Amino acid sequence: MSAAAQPITDEQFAVAIQDLPFENLYSKAAEIENSISHLVRSNEHLQKYIDSINSDESLPDATRQEGDKECSEAIQENVVVIDRQRDRIRLLKQEVERRGGRWHELNKEPNTNGSSGTTSTNGGQLTANSSAGAPRRLTDDELSQRMLERLAEDERDEDDGVHL
Hints:
3-stranded antiparallel beta sheet; mainly alpha; 57% helix
């Protein structure tokens, strides 16, 4: 990141979200969670690459011990960004609760039948979307998360065609 383009402070972020509707707060949280998951996955790939260098017997000892410094630095930078993004989610949660709302979190938990379902936490109440259960309406959070996942899939598509 360049010195000219520093992220806004937590205080500035808290002020910026004060007037947003609840839907936007949840949408922003889902967007940040998506970003965190991409950074975590990126760090996993970078670490595997570093590990492959460290264990590659065909490389000189000095190279293996040094690893890939750029990848190591990238991992550390990602960790800083992940921490900052988790702080932003905390601030979004505080804003919802400050207004008297309940924070809804999406968690991936395995169902008893072994399949993965989405569990929405609404205060102390849990609602599961089971593959064996009857269809039900999605919460705003679930809908937002699914839309973000679809958008991410669409960005990965190389095809410029029209999709209906």
